[in-house]
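Minutes, project check-in
Item: structure for the 181-residue chain
Input as provided by the requester:
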Amino acid sequence: MKTFSDNKGEIWTLSLTLQKTRKMREALGLDLLAPNHYLQILNSLTDQMAFVFLLCEEKATAMKVDADQFEERLYDTPQRDGVSTEASLAFIQETEVFFQRLGQKALAGIARKSIESIKSGRAKIQEMFASGQYDSLLQKAQDEMDSFLQKTLDDVDAISPKKDGNGSSNSQPSQESTGSL
């Protein structure tokens, strides 16, 4: 069983069983034990959070927390950052343990690599924030976007008909617009 805490500090426990995977397959149309489905789940935070909710649904119902309220608990707040990542990581860790119990070494290995990748990515992002590199990259991206938008506007201006002082175009009216033939 793996746990995570939401943005209100509530601890949620994830525990996979074959019965639960069948119920989740019926509800979501995704089979955790099918490698192509599992890869899809790993690549979709939306799918991961759907599985997390289904694994937490019994407790959520007892607490009178519906799906929308549960989702709100997974959002970052000024006081709590990385909530959905923590829930995602707990889910993937639970799938790894589940696959190991079933003797599904390949799927467990995929889960392990995904966990390592998430942890490595989080560490790299934290390092980039701490060093100021993130801010530099963000500024560079903003400058590139500003330059691109300005060039696009300049290109549009270059091919647009010019307007006279009254806001109308300098082109001659067509016969259709003047009513003459």
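Outcome recorded: The two ends are 82 Å apart (CA to CA).
No further action items on this chain.
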